[in-house]
From TrEMBL:
InterPro entries: DUF4464 (IPR027887)
Protein localization: Cytoplasm; Nucleus
Major site of localization recorded for this protein: cytoplasm
Official protein name in the record: Cilia- and flagella-associated protein 299
Basic and acidic residues: compositionally biased ranges: 1-11
One cellular component term from this protein's GO annotations in UniProt: nucleus
Entry keyword set: Cytoplasm, Nucleus
Organism domain of life: Eukaryota
Signal peptide coordinates: none
Keyword Lyase: no
Region (Disordered): 1-26
Length: 183
């Protein structure tokens, strides 16, 4: 995870410290703050700047895999097109720690482990290939390269898999794909 921040020229965040939160019974609980928190000295343009083109013809896109329990206690997992969600949703609530980022039925892939509902949706950046013998694949529309999300396989050309160790989610992985094709 440290490499993720260093590659982008950012300061590595310090581990979250449990903060006391008053409960209804008078006892205090300790709650961890969000890992996806922006330092106060940075404005909200930071997430958008993170994935802008570097060096002219190079563009980095990220797919986020999250597996965790939703507010109903159901285990859900899915793949999120980070650039698309940044454009369609206000991420300030996630960076401030007010809400947790979870997959939605409108994301590229969504699975509810309790109700066995599985949904796939192509995004403006990725085409979902759900019926491939190798499993779930995503084709980046800009350069037509395949992103393989199988943890035992190579993620593909110009792609890297970054597992995230966090107590905030059951399982979290970032897939970075670098496109060198100009638009």
């Amino acid at each position: 995870m440290h490499d993720f921040y260093k590659e982008r020229g950012l300061e590595v965040p310090k581990p979250a410290v449990p903060q006391p939160v008053p409960s209804s019974k008078g006892k205090t609980k300790k709650v961890l703050e969000s890992v996806f928190r922006i330092p106060p000295e940075l404005d909200m343009s930071f997430p958008k700047e993170l994935f802008k083109e570097k060096g002219g013809a190079e563009k980095k896109e990220t797919v986020i895999f999250i597996r965790d329990k939703n507010s109903h206690g159901q285990e859900v997992s899915g793949y999120i097109d980070y650039a698309h969600r940044l454009k369609t949703e206000d991420f300030e609530v996630y960076f401030a720690g007010k809400r947790r980022l979870l997959p939605r039925p409108t994301d590229m892939s969504f699975y509810n482990w309790d109700s066995h509902i599985a949904l796939c949706n192509s995004s403006p950046n990725y085409q979902v290939i759900a019926d491939h013998p190798e499993g779930l694949l995503f084709k980046y529309k800009r350069d037509r390269k395949i992103l393989n999300v199988d943890p035992k396989a190579n993620p593909g050309d110009n792609s890297t898999r970054i597992p995230i160790q966090t107590e905030l989610y059951t399982h979290a992985v970032l897939y970075d794909h670098v496109s060198r094709r100009k638009t």
